[in-house]
Design brief:
With about 120 residues, this protein is mainly α. The protein is built from five helices and no strands.
């Protein structure tokens, strides 16, 4: 039978180990971002767009999408393609109206949600 003192020590040790591993993985992710300027630029654009969704702000280009899709694992690629489609649809909703050519804003929360989905999928683990 395990004593309570041993159980508490084991729990604290596993918590320390999980925290240490998490910090190592985060540091590795940050180092990888330094060497990949296109992915870093894409994340900065997405973060800026999530903070303030503006219709005419700069958005991701084909080189950004190609790089982001290349870093996706194969098991997550279908989810990334779906998130990209939702992002594209949300950006089109912020385009000019066909009838009078004026900008219209259907729902800023829609574009923020789409940007957040893409941002979550760009995280390396």
């Amino acid at each position: 039978m395990i004593s309570i003192d041993f159980g508490i020590g084991l729990a604290l040790l596993s918590l320390f180990g999980a925290t240490f591993l998490s910090n190592l993985l985060a540091r590795r992710r940050d180092k990888a971002r330094e060497f990949d300027p296109i992915t870093r630029e894409a994340r900065e654009l997405l973060l800026r767009e999530r903070a303030t969704p503006i219709p005419l702000c700069p958005t991701l280009g084909p080189e950004h999408w190609a790089r982001l899709e290349a870093v996706q694992p194969s098991w997550r690629r279908n989810g990334f393609v779906a998130a990209k489609a939702r992002y594209t649809e949300a950006r089109k909703a912020f385009s000019r109206h066909d009838f009078n050519g004026e900008l219209y804003y259907p729902d800023p929360k829609r574009i923020v949600g789409a940007v957040h989905e893409v941002l979550v999928l760009t995280e390396r683990f």
